[in-house]
Batch of 4 targets.
Target 1
Amino acid sequence: MKFGVFDQNDAGIYPLSEQYENRLKLLEFYDRSGFRAYHMSEHHSTPLSLTPSPSVFLAAASQRTRNLRIGALVYVLPMHHPLRLAEEICMLDHLSNGRIDIGIGRGASPHELEYLGVDPAIAPAMYVEAYNVIRQAMTRDEVSFAGTHYNFAGVPFPIKPRQLPHPPFFYAVPTPEGAVWPAQSGINIVAGGSVTTVRTISDRFRLEWTSAGGDQAEMPLIGINRFVVAAETDRKALELGRRAWPAFYNRFMTLWKKHGTTPRYARLPEDFDTVVANRAAIVGSPGTIREAVDAMIDEAGVSYFIAQFSFGDLSHQEVLQSVQIFAEQVVSSRTQPSVVAV
């Protein structure tokens, strides 16, 4: 069983330079505490993320950590020139001594795509082509690709990643059908939705992996992402979550409200108690956190639990305490490989 961290890096209570430094200090703690990886989002023109260039922040993170894997979850591929992004990823993989993960996606917000000049209607096709170009660039000395959106003829690509043939890929999956392609392609996934939905996705992924002849010992990671707030008592943790949630929710919904639209998949309740009731957040004292995470891992059938500790107006110290509790109660107690219930 492995544990990771996800971070939107939404606008917080500190000046931006201090927020960046606090995040890097948290990464240093994740690095010392046994977490597998730090994953960050990519968003533009919204207070949901104040790190719109993942590669820039990851370059800094690579120099402040030694064991922790780092990566975007996800790079929004239609917003990047695929060869330029492939070069950045290769550089990051060497700067981090081979610790980069590559999250790939088409972009969940049509508004962000439009702001950067991308037609949301063609973004899915651009994403597929960009992924194929990036994968080719990392495994060949020249890139030749003929597509609708990208065309390259014998473009030299001398730089290669440290992790050969390429760093691990990650893909977000909201439905069971979405698990087919990554399972057949050997790509790690992070499943979204309710615990029941995640279970249907994880079951489908294992079925497709086995049907494709995959070795159980080499199965890619099947992840679940949840908000986590830990404190001395259940009451204190819930109070922190209730206080922090409105600010995060408003930042998450900024562009959707501006345009009078709603997210297709990533829909969040307006009140934190509903988030907890839906089990999108795990909140409580050390014992409560440990029991809830253990139960969710078994019910969802996952091999990778990703926690989102930082959000809203939580202070650096409040987040650090939450991470410390999680590291002591969960990460250190489940470091050995576990058997997923089927």
Note: Confidence is low (pLDDT under 50) at residues 336-342.
Target 2
Amino acid sequence: MNVNEHTPALMEIYRRLETMHARRGWHWWPDADPFEVCVGAILVQNTAWSNVERALALLRGAGALDPGTMAALPPGRVEELVRPSGQYRQKARKLAAFLSLVEAQGSLERLLALPASDLRERLLATWGIGPETADAIVVYAARQPALVIDAYTQRIFSRLGVGPAHTTDYDEWQRFFVAALEPDRDLWARYHALVVMHAKHLCRKTRPRCGECLLADRCPGRDTGEGVP
């Protein structure tokens, strides 16, 4: 059981986030197609999810949201389909690298069935996949424990004065949360989803909507955005 001095605060924040955002939709529900989750996790790098949705719609329309079908497409065709997500040439190469990993493992199902630590290690060894993308694939596609840290996490918790101070180091932030939260895949997946929704709808980078936020009473950075890394 993971319990330390930060556990009560993190769980109280979780409960308030759930109250605020339980009604909102999340793009990686439990029944999401694993390959689509993997593709989305790669395409969302350095862009908004709305752009990824446009690219996924094109891929879906072309029948390309399948590892074998996508791997058989000419690189230029993949670039064309993922263009709405930005940096389309790089992202087409990243998808190709991921498809090579799938092929080397024998199938997507075999890849995602690896133990979480092994899967994460192989993903990180794949060109174009960093910690945030790897953890998103582990927790949302493989449905195994992984705690995703992103800029939204650091924004919200820095404003709240909770978390590692004066650093944006991914591993340090992840260790902070893992040490305080139960090692529960569903909790970790839901926590990250709530963080993303809160950052998009209320705790925005500029002009945060503090008057609608149930965390405002415990937020030193309310109304000012102070504490943003």
Note: The chain has two domains: 7-25+148-218, 34-141.
Target 3
Amino acid sequence: MESSHRLPLVAAYAVAMAYVEAAVVAYLREVYGIEDVLRDLPAAADHITLIEVGRETATLIMLLALGWLAGRCCQDRAGYCAFAFGLWDIAYYAWLELFLGWPRSLLDWDLLFLIPVPWWAPVLAPTLLAATICLCGAAAVLQVDRGTVWRLTAANVSVATAGLALVLYTFTADALWALPQGIDAVARVRPIHFRWPLFLLGFVMILWAGLRVTWPGRSRLLRI
């Protein structure tokens, strides 16, 4: 079976996985009475927080395992993992909108992640990133079928790493600045404004590096 023929199966897995994730969040919001995540989120960690950290770790392991099992080489394994991660993130918000009528806007704030500190951003930011990751992952898989490989260079890796660091900083900056005051202070952090210029700079850097790697004209044909 060609690598691309597995994409629909991986997509089905990602969308189903997103359903489960969104269902858990819907239950948590009901348990804690959360209507507005900025206003109603508990200001202190509890035993549920530790379970959530474990669930997030398990989610990443599942996506990595999916990519490894679906692919045949490093390129399509990484591609499947990226494709599933991006689609899962987008489908997660689609399911939440269906379950809860949220997000009402792509500019609504969301708590994205808890490892190692809370990540905050408007929904639009992770959605843009997820769409890019998803498309790059699909391109990587399709190129395996065409007999091409990624053109990885030190410049591509450096730019992508720097861009990712900028993006992650925009998600975690408030929590990182509160970290010296202790874990309780980090848990109480609520964002006021998002660093859009910094995020967009990092996003463009990631996009540029991704295009350099996955664009067919920039790839090298495999010799068979």
Note: DSSP finds eight helices and four strands in the chain.
Target 4
Amino acid sequence: MQPDEGIIELPIGEARASRIHVKLEAGHGKPSCTDWRVERRLPGRTLVRLFPRTGRRHQLRVHLAAVGHPILGDILYGRPESDYLGMVRGEGDPRAREDGPARHLLHCARMTFPGPVSGRTRDVRAPLPADFGLTGYSGIP
């Protein structure tokens, strides 16, 4: 991804021409905003930290696919619809036939939210899973 950081402000709504009822698309619908920053550049891919300002379903996946950088391994937003539909029909996961991740590589490294009673901010953190291929990189600021 170029440059090193940016903002994606694209509305998100139902994927009108899609045969997949859970799929969404950018360009119409509810306002949506995602800030992003490059964390690390690797051959053929980029580790990006995402900061959603809104909370739309599939927002990060839709926004990255809309700007031409789908999440690695995302069968719904990073592949032809026929791959997803074939998997739903039980024809197997097309990712298993390739040298790539067995799932989409999206991970919540940190989440903060107010406590339900005290109002004190809660901070939950999780290191990057091993299948991200970044040994020794925690991914947590």
Note: The CA atoms of residues 96 and 102 lie 7 Å apart.
